[in-house]
Specification:
Distance between the termini: 75 Å
Radius of gyration: 29 Å
Structural class: alpha+beta
Helix content: 10-25%
Strand content: 35-45%
Length: 200
């Protein structure tokens, strides 16, 4: 018996199928050895965004804080709450405050402090830090009049000094490295839901 002739169209179709399978297999492999995805890193725009949740978590680990003034007054800061003012490109911190002094009656006064701050990058510690924090509102319970004004000014000055340079977010070295390139930090932008930095 003579073998059945192979139809030319069938051969062509079979060749196309093999080519399609080979192409599909090739497309399944990455074209470039990209790094594993990291939270906040945008490879295409060279940006890194720290989310509000990440910032609040890091900030919370650094409180409570205590700072003295002239050996007579102590200010205790605790329970910080982060606000993000995208329009002003500033962060806001609202927190509980206690002003303590042996010269006062009572010796401790609770209060609330709200301040705002610009941000700067500190390359030595790979950190975003508060820059020139400014007390926007401070209230002390149980004191009024001229005494309240004086104590609030003292508490505000101590709090601003204590929070100058406060770390808001610290990068890991690998956050700033892709392959053999280590990025530098450029512009810092406060967003409604996080803080974005440009990687240079």
């Amino acid at each position: 018996m003579n073998p059945r002739p192979v139809n030319a169209n069938a051969r062509a179709l079979d060749g196309r199928r093999r080519a399609v399978r080979a192409l599909a297999a090739g497309l399944a492999l990455p074209a470039l050895p990209l790094r594993p995805a990291q939270a906040g890193f945008n490879f295409f725009t060279s940006e890194y965004t720290a989310s509000r949740a990440d910032l609040e978590r890091e900030l919370g680990k650094q409180f409570p804080q205590q700072r003295g003034y002239g050996g007579l007054v102590t200010v205790i800061l605790r329970e910080p709450q982060l606000g993000l003012d995208a329009a002003a490109n500033r962060v806001q911190l609202a927190m509980a405050l206690t002003l303590a002094s042996p010269l006062m009656q009572p010796a401790e006064m609770p209060g609330r402090l709200t301040l705002s701050s610009a941000l700067r990058y500190d390359p030595a510690t790979l950190s975003l830090r508060l820059e020139q924090p400014r007390a926007e509102q401070l209230q002390l319970a149980g004191v009024t009049g001229a005494d309240a004004d004086r104590l609030q000014r003292v508490a505000a000055a101590v709090a601003q000094e204590a929070l100058q340079g406060q770390a808001l977010h610290t990068f890991r070295r690998e956050d700033l490295t892709v392959g053999r390139k280590t990025y530098e930090i450029g512009a810092i932008t406060v967003l409604a839901d996080g803080v974005k930095v440009q990687l240079l």
